[in-house]
Amino acid sequence: MNEIEHLLKYFDLEQIEENIYRGQSMDIGTGRIFGGQVLGQALAAACRTVTDDRQAHSLHAYFLREGDCNKPVVFTVDRARDGRSFSNRRVVAIQYGRPILNLAASFKIDETGFEHQTDMPVVPFPEELHEKPLIPADKIKHLSPRMRRTLTTQGPFEIRPVTDIDPFDTEPKPPVKRLWFRARYPVPDNRALQRQLLAFVSDYHLVNTATHPHGVSYLDPTLQLASLDHAMWFHRDFRIDDWLLYDCYSPVASNATALAIGRIFNRDGVLVATTAQEGLMRKRDKPREHHAPQK
């Protein structure tokens, strides 16, 4: 079983009652559920209750509590509305009887209409770049065992950075990050699944873009960096197993929070999705345990 086949198991939700589903949890080495996992699974639960002629065009979610990666997550779906063109769903992700994520998603039929988009940044194409480890080999020894596992394990997505940033470099720099990514192996030709996987991977690399101007690394054990919410808009169809450019920037940080915006283009320069995320970014006096960001 390759990395993508393994990942897809987590999106094959078990139906345990009408509008109630259960998904298994993965451990990426942080000791808690990765936000992209529960985000993508919540979207998958919503998709299970919508007819095939409607695809997700937007979602808005709040991360409420840390999830336990050793326990499954239960998703309850409220079929809020089914209209002639749109369907709306509300999803609550639950562990130990308490919500860990609230999500609202909107679905619509395909239509033709006015079109325009912003231009893709001028960047090298993925064939001109190379996949690089997140952490330079000579600095891995400085990480805790848990963080070493998290940052050195090959994931289901190949990533080729355009903006090559050393997380140990504390020199202030512009709040911008650009990278190409794609699934390492082919993904089934399923439009809903493609969107679920994009929701999953969109939680990588986004909010930590806000650390760049402040001369602080996301590996700093005194830094609290945690996703508070996540929004996505799906503009056009795409292939998650073909190269996509993630253009991330942070326009503002204030009140111990930071906002990051992401634009996702295919290799032809077509804007296929937009993301937005606010995160907690707080400096503490004492290091956090296990270097795991907490709210």
Report on this structure:
The protein has 295 residues and is mainly β. The chain has a single domain, classed as Porin (Beta Barrel), CATH 2.40.160. 14% of the residues lie in helices and 37% in strands. The chain is built from 4 helices and 13 strands. Strands 1, 2, 3, 4, 5, 6, 7, 8, 9, 10, 11, 12 and 13 form a 13-stranded antiparallel sheet that branches. It is globular and about 50 Å long.
Distance between the termini: 35 Å
Q: How many β-strand stretches?
A: 13
What would you report as the Rg, rounded to the nearest angstrom?
19 Å
The CATH topology label is Porin
What does the average pLDDT come to?
90
User: What's the CATH class, please?
Assistant: Mainly Beta
- SS class: mainly beta
How many helices? The count is 4
CATH architecture label: Beta Barrel
Strand content: 35-45%
Features:
single chain; 295 residues; mainly beta; Porin; 14% helix; disordered C terminus
Topology:
Blueprint lengths: L2 H7 L4 E4 L2 E4 L11 H13 L6 E10 L9 E10 L3 E10 L2 E12 L35 H8 L4 E5 L14 E8 L7 H12 L20 E5 L1 E6 L9 E11 L2 E10 L4 E13 L12
Antiparallel strand pairs: 1-2, 2-4, 3-6, 3-10, 4-5, 5-6, 7-8, 8-11, 9-13, 10-13, 11-12, 12-13
Helix pairs in contact: 2-4
